[in-house]
Design brief:
CATH architecture of one domain: 3-Layer(aba) Sandwich
Number of strands: 5
Structural class: mainly alpha
Number of helices: 30
Low-confidence stretches: 1-8, 171-179
Helix content: 55-70%
Largest sheet: 5 strands, parallel
Radius of gyration: 29 Å
Strand content: under 5%
Length: 645
């Protein structure tokens, strides 16, 4: 069977070189193998399955064969169709059988699909011998990563006869210039309103009227809560605190868990908006316990569970937050909450997953949230917030082109809904990042400039303006405009210091400023910045890979000053750090090449040649850009020629 050419491979474009190489294992099987085989193909999402299927169909078509995809549209189809396989062996024109059900673990019908896969695999396990006897071609089981442990558990005999397990996963190194996820400004999620308070001042005035009967205290608490939440919506924090504190004091003296729970919830909202997440968490836990005790509605309890999740997420406790967002969503579905309310909680659940690095699962929830909000005709601003988050989850997976479309949608929705300038600036910044990740630096520059102008117009915090100035500088540096990039990085650094940014964040900008100086031939100044950046990264316990990148840049600044022996030590340190941190093959190859250069300058020809060969192997393994490979080849040729002299 003839192999297809890899030029323009859609799997490589979508998921990176590693995924494309994994797929080559499948192609090799069809080129060399014959007869029955069981291939387990694990893909991150439905798009991955479709790409693989199209590739396999093209391969089989070239051999006058066809792919036989089993019709599986709903959970009950999977065990039913699979159980009938031994009764309908494929015809001679079938080159492979395709059994696909790729469902993310965050899907609403995940439990049904979980049961369906379990039943189907148990059935296949019992029919493994008939399958091997009756099928003349491979059978591909195509699913999400969560089916692997289930496969081993419920179908151990079938698992033991598998021919291959092929994993198509996004390659973290497919875009080596990707921007740091941790240095993004995230917007606040919109909230479910527990109480409608269009006129908080009227409610507060009514609450101050003299009380002539004891039962009126409960009414007073309700009015104060209504007033406080309305003032909070208007950002009148001091007045809101006065009203809500009085409500909480009065409610504590009542034997009414519902009113007490509502007052605790409201005061927790105030604390959370003031950035006092730990204290807010305590109040939300107390409120949820009281509301459960008095049998409050499922929808109401869901609102408090959602807010408890937010208080945990604000403290960086994403895993704990996830559990409460799932609880909130279940309660909202139980209580028949409006689609808008469910969409808001789905958005927050997606955020908790994204903060744990589970971008594919987060994507599924952001898509659900956007659909729920569109179904309920939620405000343009609310839909824009979720479109922005969906774009981020795609960008996290290296899918910058898809992310771009959602950032454009988010920006249009925010402009339609009259979102604040700061919010629109954040989205313009993210749109610029998606363009920069695609190598479209000139277009990215325009959006970064727009973002910076909007953030300045809206009075965004110094940290936010600093991050946008940093990425604007990067877009200029990518275009070879180092002298223009330099003042942007200096502006970013000043803003980061003004805003009290963490040491690691300041170090990243110092590193970029150093690069802009190095590109202008100012190696001595760059050296000082790289040393400072490395010290800050060590102080902030930054990743080994990040420290390795700065150590490499510091080595380059020394080499440019003719200090090859000192540079050698830094390049060795950089290579060790990158290996420790699991840096990409491309990144390690660059440092191995730089180390070779430092050795070549010192006349250590044999060792330099070995490093250049190592660099070439790493660059080839990673499908590095042609210019990078050509540079290493020239270095290798130089070392070989000088050794022969």
């Amino acid at each position: 069977m003839a192999a297809r050419q890899d030029d323009g491979n859609p799997l490589a474009r979508r998921y990176g070189a590693t995924a494309a190489k994994e797929w080559q294992r499948v192609i090799a099987h069809f080129m060399l193998g014959e007869g029955f085989a069981l291939i387990v193909l694990i893909v991150p999402d439905g798009d991955g399955a479709r790409l693989c299927r199209k590739e396999l169909e093209a391969i089989l078509r070239s051999e006058q064969q066809r792919l036989w995809p089993l019709p599986i549209a709903a959970p009950p189809d999977l065990p039913r169709v699979v159980s009938s396989l031994p009764n309908q062996p494929p015809g001679p024109d079938v080159g492979a059988v395709w059994v696909e059900a790729v469902v993310p673990s965050g899907s609403r019908d995940f439990q049904q699909w979980d049961r369906a896969w379990r039943s189907a695999l148990e059935g296949l396990n019992q029919q493994r011998n008939p399958l091997r006897d009756l099928f003349h071609c491979p059978v591909l089981i195509v699913g999400a990563p969560w089916i692997v442990p289930m496969f081993r558990e419920v179908a151990p005999d079938l698992w033991s006869v598998r021919s291959q397990v092929v994993r198509i996963e996004p390659d973290r190194d497919s875009l080596p210039q990707r921007l740091e996820t941790a240095r993004q400004m995230e917007k606040l999620g919109d909230k479910v309103g527990r109480i409608d308070a269009p006129d908080p001042d009227f409610a507060f005035t009514e609450a101050q009227r003299p009380l002539f009967i004891p039962d009126g205290i409960g009414d007073r608490v309700s009015l104060l809560v209504r007033a406080g939440l309305g003032m909070l919506e208007q950002r009148r924090f001091d007045e809101a605190e006065t009203a809500l504190r009085e409500a909480l004091d009065l409610a504590a003296g009542l034997e009414d868990p519902l009113l007490h729970g509502l007052a605790l919830h409201a005061f927790g909202c105030l604390l959370l908006d003031q950035g006092r997440a730990s204290k807010a968490e305590t109040l939300f836990r107390q409120a949820l316990a009281l509301l459960e005790e008095c049998g409050d509605t499922a929808t109401s309890r869901g609102v408090t569970a959602d807010m408890l999740g937010r208080s945990l997420l604000d403290q960086g406790r994403a895993l704990e937050a996830e559990a409460f967002f799932r609880q909130a969503l279940a309660l909202e579905e139980e209580g028949g909450a409006p689609a808008t309310s469910r969409g808001i909680t789905e958005d927050m659940l997606g955020r908790s997953l994204r903060h744990q690095g589970r971008a594919a699962e987060a994507e599924a929830f952001f898509r659900q949230a956007l659909a729920s909000k569109e179904q309920a005709s939620a405000s343009a601003t609310s839909r824009g917030v979720t479109a922005d988050m969906l774009g981020r989850s795609l960008l996290d997976q290296g899918r910058a082109l898809e992310a771009e479309a959602f950032f454009r949608q988010a920006l249009a929705l925010e402009e339609e809904g009259g979102a604040p300038a700061t919010s629109r600036g954040i989205t313009a910044d993210m749109l610029g990042r998606s363009l920069l990740d695609q190598g479209r630096a000139l277009e990215a520059e325009a959006f970064f400039r727009q973002a910076l102008a909007l953030e300045e117009e809206g009075g965004a915090p110094a940290t936010s303006r600093g991050l946008t100035a940093d990425v604007l500088g990067r877009s200029l540096l990518s275009q070879g405009r180092a002298s223009e990039a330099e003042p942007l990085f200096r502006q970013a650094l000043a803003a980061a210091e003004e805003g009290g940014a963490p040491a690691t964040s300041r170090a990243i900008t110092e590193d970029m400023l150093g690069r802009s100086l190095l590109d202008q031939g100012r190696a001595s100044e760059a050296e000082a910045l790289f040393r400072q950046a490395l010290a800050l990264k060590e102080e902030g316990s930054d990743t080994a890979t990040s420290r390795g990148i700065t150590a490499d840049n510091l080595g380059r600044s020394l080499l440019d000053q003719g200090r090859a022996s000192e540079a050698e030590a830094l390049f060795r340190q950089a290579l060790a750090l990158k290996e420790e941190g699991g840096a990409s093959a491309t990144s390690r190859g660059i440092t191995a090449d730089n180390l070779g250069r430092s050795l070549l300058v010192q006349g250590h020809m044999a060792e330099a040649e070995a490093l250049f060969r190592q660099a070439l192997a790493l660059a080839s393994e990673a499908n590095a850009p042609a210019d990078a490979i050509d540079r290493i080849r020239r270095d290798l040729a130089c070392a070989t020629n000088r050794a022969a002299e």
